[in-house]
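Record 1 of the preview.
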Amino acid sequence: MPTTAASPKLSAPFEQGGPPLADATASDSALRRFLHGLPGVDTVGLEARAASLGTRSIKTTAKAYAIDLAISMIDLTTLEGADTPGKVRALAAKAVNPDPTDRTTPRTAAVCVYPDMAATAAAALAGSGVKVASVATAFPAGRAALDVKLADVRDAVAAGADEIDMVIDRGAFLSGRYLKVYEEIVAVKAECGSARLKVIFETGELSTYDNIRRASWLGMLAGADFIKTSTGKVATNATPANTLLMLEAVRDFREQTGVQIGVKPAGGIRTTKDAIKFLVLVNETAGEDWLDNHWFRFGASSLLNDLLMQRQKLSTGRYSGPDYVTVD
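->
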């Protein structure tokens, strides 16, 4: 069983040398040397492999399993300024019982809300096994002082959040202030207590695959329990290629440290076909150990509706139409 993110067994990261992980965060310059010493990303190769894996077909029995697995991996999400307690309670009810006509339908992994709605979600989900996830740290821009961000996290945890989804300071990262980003993640992790921490990179703003690889290792070194692609609030969110790259990172990190880290693609995953492509990526890249909602999540809401319609099609042989499922 892999160890947790809090207690890595440190060793040299790659056979070609470089500072050991134990020394990588000793200073800003050491962290920069480590991150820029990571192998460069072959863009053509990465995108070609992601595209190739996306063409895999699966049999009907495997598809039924994949649909149920995908449902169980969803962080059912509402992150709008117009969110109300009633909307959050309705979303929680859907998470617990996605298809009222079929009680064999799995529950989703979590309901993800803003911190001020965490208490409402916690009350609605009590005893269900569905987690309460809360975005924090001045989501989605992350433009706030550290004490404000930490207060945001404390409020969410005190309100009942089981998981915290934080955003990194992309401005600091893109200007090469890696230690600032690292120390902020460490500070947020300390405020989480027993809550698991998902670190959002906003990959659409990081510009290059090399930056996504660096951000992945930075987040894992700082104690992330999950690394997450996106907020869902920008034009480019989760893609097969950037998710594949992050899956490679968690696989390599576990090989070097014994610590297993989760991955959460978020934004733009709307259909069953999309979800199955991502599950194939997980299986073929990180392996079966990640095919569980403790280690892989989808940040989505509309995806659930399509999964439910496809699930009914497999069981009845016919589509019932979009009005079969509730509107989020």
